[in-house]
Amino acid sequence: MRLFLWMSLLLLPVLFGCGSSDDEVSEDDTVLGGDSAIGDVDPNAVAPVSYLGWKPEVTTTWQWQLLGDVNTEYDVDVYDIDLFDVPQSTIDQLHADGRKVMCYFSGGSFEEWREDAGDFPEAALGKDLDGWEGERWLDVRSAGLREVMAARLDLAVSRRCDGVEPDNMDGYTNDSGFDLTGDDQLAYNRWLANAAHERGLFVALKNDVDQISELEPYFDLQVNEQCHEFDECDLLAPFINAGKPVFNAEYRERYVDDSSDLCDQAEAEQIRVLVLPLDLDDAFRITCE
Questions:
Q1: Which fold does the domain 5-48+57-287 belong to in CATH?
Q2: What does the alpha-carbon distance between residue 2 and residue 189 come to, in Å, rounded to a whole number?
Q3: Strand-pair category, 246-250 with 135-138
Q4: Angstrom distance (rounded) from CA 26 to CA 29
Q5: pTM reported for the whole predicted model
Q6: SS3 state at 252
Q7: What residues have CB less than 8 Å from 109, skipping those under 6 apart?
Q8: How far is CA 134 from CA 66, 110, 191, in A?
Q9: Relative to the CA of 240, which of 36, 219, 231, 257 has its CA 20 to 30 Å away?
Q10: How far apart are CA 29 and CA 14, in angstroms?
Q11: For 175, phi and psi rounded to 5 degrees?
């Protein structure tokens, strides 16, 4: 994981492991901050790490495909693709075509099929994600978890990704199996963004809309799903107001049949909208560009 500036955030970490029960104690992991540490971590204590690399703009265009052979034929600025599964030749081809590559991984959930699944501390594995077989929530207070995520960022660098999209960054709002607080999540999300910037990667905020104003200064863009369907696009305005893009994917069938009203709204909001299959396998793609 990323063991860099985040160390300065941590006040007196103690050995305390959280499994799927809040009351379990283990000696194989360290919990950072939160109710279980001696002294809480102040999520406001660390400023955003300066990042001088390429940054997307409000008008930046994008494509999102996580399953299947990546279709590299779209004339867009940024491709959002899987960190682990996409061949290096595809990343290199996208770069040769003038595209930026944002590499997706889950920053807040354990996926049992990933090649680094054995690196996660057992104490950091929580309850299953509802509807997603083989995934479990993670204890974002875990020092061992941060080591795994640091290694993923290093992998992104070695694969020549330009940026990253960590998913499931709102465990504190879910039934994770851990007594996570908003401050726990802020500290972790900010640490992850800073660790990405330290490595020269731009970074997208995924989820955690409730804390978007506190997190916007640390992230370079927002990746959202279904903000139009759930009527929450207005919550994403802090990114637009800061000159940072919001990439939003919609999945409703009625948008596939007729996207005109959706696109009119997206244009007014300056949100970059794609209508995509839920599997994100490039079965079809409707853009409001």
A1: TIM Barrel (3.20.20)
A2: 12
A3: unpaired
A4: 7
A5: 0.86
A6: coil
A7: 129, 132, 135, 136, 137, 138, 167, 168, 171
A8: 17, 8, 26
A9: 257
A10: 9
A11: -80, 80
Phi/psi region, residue 61 (left: phi>0; alpha: psi -120 to 50; beta: rest), is: beta
Helix (H, G, I), strand (E, B) or coil at 204: strand
Q: Mutual orientation of helices 143-158 and 182-198 as an angle, nearest 10°? A: 30
In the numeric block, which tokens belong to residue 135? 């995934």
* Contact residues for 252 (Cβ-Cβ < 8 A; gap 6+): 226, 229, 275
3-state secondary structure of 81: strand
Q: How high is the mean pLDDT of the chain?
A: 89
Domain boundaries, the chain: 5-48+57-287
Amino acid 41: pLDDT: 56
Find out whether 234 and 251 touch, Cβ atoms under 8 Å: no
Length of the chain in residues, anyone?
289
What span, in angstroms and rounded, lies between the C-alpha atoms of 20 and 128? 9
Residue 1 predicted with pLDDT over 50? no
Give 272's pLDDT tier (boundaries 50, 70, 90): very high
